[in-house]
Design brief:
Distance between the termini: 23 Å
Radius of gyration: 38 Å
Shape: elongated
Strand content: 5-15%
Helix content: 55-70%
Length: 975
Amino acid sequence: MATLLYRLGRFAYRRPWRVLGVWLLLIVGVLGGGIALGGQTQESFVIPGTESQDALDRLEAVFPSVAGASATAVVVAPSGSSIDDEEASIENLVTAIGNIDGVDSALSPFSEYAGDAISDDGDMAIIRVQLVGSSADVSEETIADLKATAGVAEDDGLRVEFGGQVFQDNTVGITVTEVFGVLFAGVVLFITFGSLLAAGMPLISALIGVGIVMGAIISLSAFTTVSSSAPLLALMIGLAVGIDYALFILSRHRTQLARGEDPEESAAMSVGTAGSAVVFAGITVIIALLGLLVVGIPFLSVMGVGAAVAVLIAIGVATTLLPAFLGLAKGRLAPKTGSRAWKRANAEPGQQKSMGMRWVKGVMKHPILATIAVIGILGTLAIPALSLDLNLPDGASEPAGSTQREAYDLVSDGFGAGYNGPLIVAVDITQTTDILGDLDSIADDLRTLPDVAFVSQGIPDEGLDTAILQVTPSSAPDAVETKELVEAIRELGPTIESRYDTPIFVTGATAIGIDISNRLTNALVPFGLIVVGLSIILLMAVFRSVLVPIKAALGFLLSVVASFGIVVAIFQWGWFSELLHVENPGPILSFMPIILMAVLFGLAMDYEVFLVSGMREEFVKTGDARHSVSTGFANGARVVTAAALIMFFVFFAFVPEGSGTIKGIALGLAVGIALDAFLVRMTLVPALMTLFGNAAWWMPRWLGRLLPNVDIEGEQLREHKHSLDWAAGSTAVLSADNLVVGSADDSVGPITFSVAEGTVVTASGDAMDRRRLAATLAGRLEPLSGQAQVGGHPLPSESAAVRAIVALADIGGSQPSEPGVTVGELLDERLELTQPWYRMFTIARQSQRWLDRINSVLGEGRTVVTRESTLVGLPQLERAVALATIAIAEHPTVVMLDQLDAFADPRDEAAFVAAVCSLATASTVIVIGTPPASRLVRTASFANATGGRTHIDIDLSGPFDLPETLQLSSEGVVR
């Protein structure tokens, strides 16, 4: 990963305008496409598989007139008058509403079916409006026409307000406070870098990434239902991680520039090292967000996927667009000599006098006290979370002064809060013979339940399949008593079914909201286990430790429950609600906890990775656990502090003036980030790491073998750069330095050699040893230790490039696996695999030319090799030459030929060498693996056979001793 990112960063640095052009085209295309498609966000809380949704689906099939979206028109009589006095005006309003396209029916409050639609004091009435289709199907024109009908009654002095889910504010509004959040982030960046140029790069790159993801979500909303919270959540997360990821890479780049690194090399190394941590941290966030898919709630899945895409784009921007900006800036980002940034970068290890070093030293002096203090503070803040109450937004959460909020408040005052969210009880009447009598009896049974304010008469459908009763609670839609009423009706269901043979089902917007809340509450634990479990495994692979990932996950749990507690205290209990413009404290948005868990976990692991990876890097270098904690912390504390402040400001900016559905999420993320970064990661983590000592980096060997080695510290990249420098200093085509190949139990080496172009190399020894060496030098097998390069490509980091210039062939197999295969078939196959597509039509001619050359170098008196010649039918020399030719036909830089058996006639060995040297180009290196016995026949005739090529002989029979001045490191590199 680090090597790939290193190359990606160098590519972007060298071609900045090309990379910038691609990103600009992408943002223009995606954002322009979203605007052109005209997508609109909609609140459609559908939850498949619940009783309320199944009942609603049944009503849509058999009783569609009551299954669609609904609305209410609340009419208030003028002062000194009553609703009865204004009957004519109200009837005119009902008629006007009923004539609107998209309205199925409007029920007058004076109708016998209206139920309790006029307040007890006679000053207020409710007109029930049934719309065609679901909320997502209701057009903006229908809503506008509904609001316009208010003028019919207002002309007569009546007041009209409209309520219902279709009137909820679904616009994605960006207010000035969100802009202030970005400005505060810019101030933090300027303080961190001390440069306007450096501070602007993360902001610009993050805004480009956010523009792309917003365009993508708006485009998606033209084809499917997207909640208005989805783009805001993606905007928040995209801004925060986009700025932070660029910050980490840019900080590493400026530090390296201060130490005198070449700007291009520094940019590539920053993307390769800090970029690896960014990619891993981003993947952790994406895993957490995609974990929302397991909940099985469509609107929540869309939110999770949208936010995950925002993180993915932020990763792409940080690893490609940012290095392109660095390529435009060149060396102008280097801190001035003598500046504070320069002094920090060039301070001797252990001599830093930064605030971070002073802080961590203080924590490490009293680790037990620090641990107890953090747990105590977070535990206290978490206490309010014990009373967490969840529900979906309703009219009470709408902005003050809006028609839907006014309607909600009027109904609550005139009728009771429960009239804002009546329940619909669907009754299956297919098995009853006394429909009206049974419906009256069921209504009487429902009236006996607690918290029931009113039960309407039963209304059957035209086909007499299903009837509905409207049950109005006494309590508000989001009250605990209403939830208990829904459960009570469902518990009463079996009794009603056995008594009247009529199954009943509870549905309606209120019941659906309760079911969603219950589903989300039940999903919290399995969701947490899945996300935390996967991330613990990933962190184990990164840090090669058992305790560090477990400590990271437990620290996250402390942060998240503390953030839950703060959100409950403000949004549910009402503490400081006026200060944060929380107009109506009450139950918490039902999907807030699970979204908060997903996002906060991913971001918390970001800081864990960025801080602890520095500790891990120091521990690998020194083996001193205590020193690694202080030095690693001091190196990363400044940038992590800046990143946490940026995220806090970006998230908190959505709290004061944000929409009702996003305010709680934004506050939870803001305080969660602050608590996790400053209390958990920067206080609890160094305290626990100090207490753990060397045990922090313990991992069972069996577990270490199972987990992949994820190198986010860039150790493999540094080894790759070292190998590149070593390979660049060699003029040989093929060379090795103390190379050891094979396995830990059975190895060959160390071997050192240098081979110039055109050289013939004979390697004699055991067949398995020869093949291990050939596979290693061909890029098919990683070396155990030492260094090797082929054609300037170091091994193993550039194995793919080596495989492209090395050909392998077994020339002496006496037991062919396919006795019927012909030379022509093998030649055609090899040429088809290695030739460009435009030479596919010349394969037959090329094969024939190679056959002619084979027969030419063999000379007269030898068996003629034709296309139809089978390998098993050819003599040993002819077969060996034919197989060697198939490999040479690739035109490789190096061809490796292994002779399983010695030639029966010693003269054939010289003839074979002469043939191969003639067939291969003068610059091709020829490596021939031979049995030990053939070393005895390398006489003057063998030397003549090479045709003047240099000959090098390598004996693999050993013994091999590792030089005393070198040692084999844990990474498998000879040092």
